[in-house]
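User: I need a structural model of Peptidase P60 from Labrys miyagiensis for a docking pre-check later this week. Nothing fancy, just the predicted structure tokens so I can convert them on my end. Input:
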Amino acid sequence: MVTAALMETPALTDFDRRITPARPDLAAASLQGIIPAPRYVQGETRQVIETTVTLRKDPDFSASIDTELLYGETFTVYDEMEGWAWGQAASDGYVGWLSANALGAVQTPTHRVSALRTFVYPVPSIKAPQMMALSYGSALAVTGSNGAFLALEGWGFVFAEHAGPVGAHESDAVAVAETFLRVPYLWGGKSSLGLDCSALVQTSLAACGIACPRDSDMQERALGHPLDPDTPLAQLRRGDLLFWKGHVAMVRDTDTMIHATGHLMAVVVEGLREGIERIAAAGSPLRSIRRL
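Assistant: Understood. Predicted structure tokens for Peptidase P60:
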């Protein structure tokens, strides 16, 4: 006989695999009593030590990219296999596989890169050969300053004007998004070398201190409050979010919106009415509007 308790136990398929650190063979210890698993793992926190690292659903370099993690992001590792690490990103909870070689010891971040992109130098000189390029939002552990440069814990220097304290937030998410104008569109990308529509929104809101999920469907459910999809365009405000199936854009003003679009393969400013009509003509009418 199946007991009521067993009947009420949720199956793994009841959870969003993108943000649930559980597999048929193991689960995070925090899920014990919530998701049944043959083994529970406490996990080990590590930090990304490369410019970016791709996170994938499967441990296979031919697998599509779910998202990216930037330098300095923390990642809890629950399993390792043949050079791959499986776990969960701390910033947005995304779960997947990434290269274990891209992870190192955790350092406490004090600053974040505030320029679209900056370089790390071995000495505090712009004439020195750069060691690494870091993208907007990358977390830095700064130990001091040297002239116009900040010294990083254990290695290198970055130009001080290209970084700000972790507690300092921007006030205009759209202005942050505008920093990425003409950056190429990249499915799953999250850096200044290439990013997708929801990464642009996530990055822009994070810079303003607003927690934001990774994918557009998650953002549509979690952010702000809904407006009537038929709200006149003249009543929209800067920063309102427009959602279509699988796509999101930010209202820039009553005439324009900004988004990372595969249509033009870049972050662009597009006419608000023209963009809504173009996407609708392609088979995807505007689904919702959210105001933060």
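Before docking, keep this in mind: The chain is about 15% helix and 35% strand.
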